[in-house]
Please model this.
Amino acid sequence: MPKKIRLILPSMALMLAMLACGLPAIPTPPPGDIVETNVAATVGSFFADTTPTPAATPTEPVPTITAAPSEAPTLPTPAERQVVFVQTGNLWLWRASSGAVQLTSDGGAVAARLSPDGQKVAYSKWMTEFNKELWLINSDGSGNRMLLSAVDIANLDAEKALSLYNFWWLPDSQKIGYETQFAVEIGVPRSWDFQVIDTVTGEGGTLVPAGQSGNVLASPDGQKLAVTTATNIRVIELSTGTHRMLLSYPFVYTYSEWAYVPTPVWAPDSESLGVIIPPQDSLGVETPIGTLWIAPLHAAPYEAASFELSPVFISDTSVAPNLNQYIYGTGANPDTGQVHLGQVAPPSSQVIINGSVRYSGWSADSAHYFFTQSESDGGDTLYVAAPGSSPQVLAGNVHAYTVRWVGNDQVIFISGTYGSAELHLMNLSGSDTIIAVGGDDLTFDTTR
Model:
């Protein structure tokens, strides 16, 4: 089995002790500036089929990535919820009507992503202890093939030992974006790049250079990508190959090797983003203040609300898609802090529970939110609530992690521990469907 390094954030006691001895070194944030002409030209080269006029020639040659071209499969759009998951190195697809069907049996699978149209599954696969490949299979189990070998990925930069870090589908269900990392045993630092591979033509290359990309979030209309780094948020227009800077902010100190990257949310009309930005140094001020920023695509961003905020390593935050409500924590101690529901208009804030939040998130219609709290025995409790009502326990003491909304009335999450995890799909009423039980390194994906 490949070795995995899990970053565990220091406890408050340890952190305060470190402060007493002097501040630890702050990791250098990834560079934030992108040369607009280069990015626009590169984006245009990848999305020429949707660009009205030819894009300019990139200033640097786009690397050629070898992959076997194939015809796009003709499959019906699924009429029911699908969940793809990896269990003990093999790929499975679950549907409510048929249950789980095994798609691969040769092992090595690490993580899977279901295409937006539900017709294809991209998945990563171990090739060596530190190197992964990118594969593609149709959701009916046919057409299994390798898209990118470990050598293809390493050859993106011959001077650096690159490996696959993360990957995601672009909204057209034809292209896949991915990020690399340095293939080393300790630390596995991200490259902060944005590569693209076309699953039909096999063409690919660099969309955003190393050190200048981050987490990617597609807009609801499928026409834009928000790229969030440790210091800024940019938006790429897929139809024109242009991009714009939406918001810049200071690099947030975490007193660890972990670089904090905020999590924005798109408004339903895809015309603005909302994001909570914490203070740069939560432990260096008496009262750390966070800010909810609203960033319209065609106007200047503005501060919608400001409030006392727990350090990012203590309590999670999340913004509703309506950009009017948000979850945040206060206090520097996870046991004595409080969790709040805030509102922009009319301005209000109320304590919804004591303690801190491990994970939180909102349904697409902003009608409900969930959050999890760690318990003293090591488990987690999953709560669900509608704004204005008290949080209700949806699942107690379940070691819940990787919690996500499915539609507006279901959540999906993994519970348990390594080797004995379970994948649950739960209605807000509490009805529970267990999709998978057991296996090492259980991971999943589903279309929202």
